[in-house]
């Protein structure tokens, strides 16, 4: 079984629209939306939820005023300044370390586990999908990402599905690390701008740090052909395969407004559809995805 | 006064708005790039960097001579950063949240202070703007401590603009909380609206006044305007899609410098923010 994680570093490069288009072009796969903080894939795939489960993240401290003697020991131990002078825990600031709970001489601090979100197993017109919703202002997104990736793997194994297509989150922090560790390959969707290049380099460094092979796709390449050329050169120097270049095309947004994938959008330019389909074939046949994990050891790349 | 520029969805033009706003205001401004995972504002502002300081966080180091292997440190650690194997304590520094519970609990005083690098804080100037950014170390998972470091450069009398990370979870919350206004940059597409709603809910939890900038305002559909009316969110600026704006952005240039007619528009955006804050204060 293989897992392709589609990431971008920078948001708004067209990652989710492309993930959905690839889902429509692929077969025998499981879909996973690991962008749990701002999940959008469901807006194009209209999943029918079959199973819904609460996500219990960390715990948060809560002081029972009736039992508190106001000794101040908890405030001394809290490194996150989460306890006010009148002994109330600010749930947004609380890191859930539980140190105050251990040290309170009166055992006056509760530490209930928090429901931090929900995750779902669903059916879509393009196969099974695992997705989630992290609660507003919640932590532990990395833990939730790991959990749904594991579910996607289990479903793939049980049903003999050979590929997991994962829509990853933006950035390079904990949810991204949780999305890519142990994946077969990552596909980075980059747009040709100074920030696109900058963010691509950081996310490529991150993937290399975890020794995961990287593929690059340039989206809206014609918005800045010079920058697209620079990205191509830098990727080439780093030995990264460019799987394709997609021109700017309003069809992506129009399909999104209709709640469908690009491949289902009737007015889409046939050349664009052919291009996206060719790119998907290139990805499927790429060395990064075809090689076995063991012999795809990458050097640490700094491009 | 601190204005945070945020967005639920990434790539909606948050950095475009924060940088152009900062250079259009006719007074001294501090611009903080708190999108520490992917800091981009410097690419547009091109400040002269004067300082670059690595930032560290506490992680434990066990003094094997003192340690008696009692396991109390591993027991208090809620983040699986410590494990006791036989009589030896193993530290997994990348999992540590720096709560220092292990140090507080150790009966033998065997937990010493070590450090993990979170990233680097760069600071410098460009014309009247004092610029600070956090740049998270590749492989570091936790951005909130670095975001809090960047924010520690604010003085109460300053006018600060924060370029916040996208999303609604801990990094975005750490960039927005305690600010006086959240300027939410969005685009009128189903993804843009969906993620905006989540971000607005987060801002409600923080109880901060909020206004919208609609970028690429003529793509997508009109549902965003209905939502804004329904939520009572003022739309302070609309920027239409224009290929030349996209190209200026792609080259790392500032809109107000390439097309000077935009400068007064961003100056008025600042006035509108100040008005919104004052109106809300007078209502309360
Ligand atoms: S340590 Fe316990 S008793 Fe003391 S102030 Fe805190 S909650 Fe109250
Ligand atoms: S659990 Fe940790 S962060 Fe939360 S209030 Fe207690 S000491 Fe502070
Ligand atoms: S609490 Fe102190 S003495 Fe006990 S195992 Fe940990 S380091 Fe060693
Ligand atoms: S500082 Fe806190 S999180 Fe880090 S190892 Fe010690 S107990 Fe665990």
Automatic annotation (TrEMBL), chain A:
GO terms for molecular function: iron-sulfur cluster binding; metal ion binding. Residues 59-84, 85-114 form the 4Fe-4S ferredoxin-type domain. Gene3D superfamilies: 3.30.70.20, P-loop containing nucleotide triphosphate hydrolases. Signal peptide: none annotated. InterPro entries: 4Fe4S_Fe-S-bd, 4Fe4S_Fe_S_CS, CobQ/CobB/MinD/ParA_Nub-bd_dom, P-loop_NTPase. Keywords: Iron, Iron-sulfur, Metal-binding. This is MinD superfamily P-loop ATPase, contains an inserted ferredoxin domain.
TrEMBL record, chain B:
InterPro entries: 4Fe4S_Fe-S-bd, 4Fe4S_Fe_S_CS, CobQ/CobB/MinD/ParA_Nub-bd_dom, P-loop_NTPase. Keywords: Iron, Iron-sulfur, Metal-binding. GO terms for molecular function: iron-sulfur cluster binding; metal ion binding. Residues 58-87, 88-116 form the 4Fe-4S ferredoxin-type domain. PANTHER family: 4FE-4S CLUSTER CONTAINING PARA FAMILY ATPASE PROTEIN. This is MinD superfamily P-loop ATPase, contains an inserted ferredoxin domain.
